[in-house]
Amino acid sequence: MPGKPVSGSFIHLLEGVPREPLRITDVKTTRLTYQPPPDVFVHECGPVVLTKYDVAVVEVFTDQGLVGIGPGDVNGTDDYGYLIGQNPFDVELLGLPAGLDVACWDLIGKATGKPVYALLATDNEPNPRVHVYASGGVHWTYYDKGDGRAYGVDALIEEALRYKAMGFDTFKWRPGTDWEESGINPQKLGEICRQLREAVGPDFNLGLEKKGYDSWTLDECLEIAPIINELGFLFFEQPMGDEGPAQFDDYRRLKERMPDVMLWGGERFRSLNEARPWLREHIYDAVQTDAYYIGLTANWYLARTAAFYGVKQVPHNWSSSLGTMCNTHLVAGVPNGHMCEFFLYDNPFREALFTEPYRPVDGYITLADKPGFGMELMPDLDKQFPYIPGPSVLPNPRFPHALARAQAREAEVRARYAS
Predict the structure, then answer these.
(1) Helices and strands: H and E segment counts in the chain
(2) SS3 233
(3) Residue 385: what are its φ and ψ, rounded to 5°?
(4) Over the stretch 254-299, which tens digit does the pLDDT of each residue have?
(5) Domain membership flag for residue 416
(6) Distance (Å, whole) CA 102 – CA 105
(7) Measured between alpha carbons, how far is 333 from 259 in angstroms, rounded to an integer?
């Protein structure tokens, strides 16, 4: 059944915020790359490996000496001349790329002396104690990698118990490397889910995501759903992607098979118009739009619309501490902020970008009462992480033919819902 709108007022985003005479004087983008040692991958997931990780940092300078920080687009343009002379307080009118939008909110907070989450909490009480979940499961393989480490379900259990010991109460993971190469199917994965549940205990929350660089088919989803429902999983994340309203009936069938498991999704939504049908029909119980990719302005409007329909906000957050920065403030500032993803695969950009990065304590990040995001970049980042151009996602060298097969299956899933 479609979700029923909840009662409540709606307020303009910057209503009541005093406007300051601030002018943008310059914009700088710094591109960075983390390159692991040879024969070591950032991810080994599904049919692919991730050989390096690229990020970009945007800094927006002003005539009052304030500098706003945001996530940049590694492949984007550096032509920001149209912003020179503009006031960051016009952020709702400027239609900015995500990173510049985020940087402007940092500037508005610094100019007004308020944390961003307080600015976003227009007619609700902010909650600066943000619940985060451990997100990983992109290194466990069904095969022995020959490095002397655990593999298969033993590696997955080892990872989950490590996060539990760190104080997290929720772990989301991906369903391993390529299934065909390892003879895996939903029933066999279900047995892995069962062993994982027994290892972590009944009170530790588990979430299962789509296949890495592949989609579950509807039949596979319907087969795994009752298994994870029986095992008390917290959520199943966008297993067939966010392809559009033609998926709604199939997702409803899936939800009938797992009445006690939430369905999360929407990380690929890039606008409110794209998300609105999903929210109105309450297909997803939580929407995962990411301020790293759509900015805070668009995500605030989307989150408020989600709240209107009774849908939780749980941002996708898989890139760097720049994403953690803006997404935790979003969760803290909107009325339906529920949780935020916290990535735990090997990536120094989780902490290396800032002098005082956000770090979870017992599964929560507590935001400081500082102007803007309250963050300061580390010096000489471009020297520590020099940018290396070129592709980062490559076929897994153990079975390079598997990627084409996975892409064909994902194309079939999209074609099913193309109407």
Answers:
(1) 13, 15
(2) coil
(3) -130, 65
(4) 999 999 999 999 999 999 999 999 999 999 999 999 999 999 999 9
(5) no
(6) 5
(7) 30
